[in-house]
Amino acid sequence: MASKKATALLQWLQKRAEQDRENLRLFVFGAAAFFAGLGIILMAQKYLLPSLAQEIVSLAGLILAAMGALSAALGYIALSILRIIRLTRKND
């Protein structure tokens, strides 16, 4: 059962490694979302008075930044490490 899951995961990773354009799009979208979230946090700290509204806006920016960072990390991993996997599998 475990080897079946590992084989399925490896096949999925190989398919994902073939999609360079989508991986780059995921990385760029993630980076943009991260910096937009960071910008929201900085703007809330600078332009809003200390209040519950400031904290809610900052929390929204933090959530956006975290989702963007995760997306950018996945895109970067797919672009770099999965490409190495793809190149080594072609030589087998």
Word description of this protein:
Helix 1 (about 1-15) packs across helix 3 and helix 2 runs antiparallel to helix 3 (about 50-90). This protein has a domain at about 35-90. The protein is elongated and about 60 Å long. The chain is mainly α and about 90 residues long. The model has no long low-confidence stretch (mean pLDDT about 90). It is built from 3 helices and no strands. It has helices at about 1-15, 20-45, 50-90.
Report the principal-axis shape.
elongated
**Could you give the distance between the termini?**
25 Å
Mean pLDDT reading? 89
Q: Would you tell me the structural class of the helices and strands? A: mainly alpha
Topology, please?
Layout: H1 2-17, H2 20-47, H3 52-90
Helix pairs in contact: 1-3, 2-3
Summarize the structure.
This protein has 92 residues and is mainly alpha-helical. It has helices spanning 2-17, 20-47, 52-90.
Descriptive key words:
92 residues, 3 helices, mainly alpha, membrane
